[in-house]
Protein: Carboxylate--amine ligase
Organism: Duganella lactea
Amino acid sequence: MPDNLLPAVVLGIDTPIGLAIIRDLGRRGVPVYGIARSAEALGLRSRYLKRGLLRAGDGTAGVVAQLRQLYEEIGEACLFAISETDINALNAERAHLQGYRLLFASAEAMAMVLDKTATYAVAERVGIHVPRTLQPASLEHATAEVGKLRYPVVLKWADPNGVAPPLRQAGLLLDKVHYCADAAALLAYLRPYQAAGLYPLVQEYCAGYGLGQFILMRDGQPHYLFQHRRLHEWPPEGGVSTVCQSLPLSQHMEQMRRSVALLRALRWEGVAMVEYRHDPVTGQSALMEVNGRFWGSLPLACHAGAAFPWLLYQLHGLHRPVWQTPYRAGLRCRFMLPETRRLLRVLGRRGGAAEFASYLIDFARPGTRYYVHDWRDPGPLWADVTQMLWRALHNLPGMRRHRIDF
């Protein structure tokens, strides 16, 4: 093992986030063990994965038992967790994870950033602009307030993980983000939630583009900074980043100072993304949320040279110092499946031809990278394409009624 590097265990290698962690650590000689939910997981096809495992059943207890067994085989290791659900579950089992160096935030810190109302209160104290937000206590309360809002509005949950179980019990779906164009649409959307007595936050829409500031914290100090701009999202009205571009640290310097102040006030340790909507006309950035985990556009940071998995592994795993080394600004990264869905959505709109041309040009642009495709590690791309083709074939008329074995 080069330079006495500890093994790394990554829980959640089904997405481009887990894949990016495997690649970033594996290329530097770290033995990486990955745990996937599905046999089709992207990370299982990476050449940089030392060993892949399928997630044990029986919920959290099964995963903890699996991790304990793996520890008996490989010894002390650094443990990465991708999803908020897994982070919360593992935080409740810290006493049973001895031998692992846990590279995710504590339960107390996660609770603060998952509660958007609490996060917004801290943000306002450090001088960050927060969009006007209504938390309905009842449908009657919402009815009295909807006329005071500026439309469109964005609906999101203050604590998505916390409300998911009671919503399921009431037969309601959890929409992470929903848009309403007027008061009538808002009240119609809120009405079914009377069954659970729970309502999402209603937030005034903020013009501009998505700005993500990524920070590695330890002991109240930032140890690495990176930022990007969202160019495209799915859905187009706002959602997952499908094309994003790295920005130099010379831009949005004051906002970055406030982002660090926010994480310091939250007593944050480790990696986090502070997400804004930035209006270039007014120059104002409005806080959307703090992602207290590795974020969806992590592949862009890694391609640009901002190696957050490796930096976190060194700083919090091995307790070695890290430095703010330069990264490449102006690099683009594409998440091709949702980006293609976005293209199909906007083709019929004004400017659709220009969107199609830009979609094609990006394939030839030297500064373009991809969430999944990497010529040095082609296995995940082929697995992704194969799954896509199989799903398309399975959905053809008549195919759903017949099983085809190859």
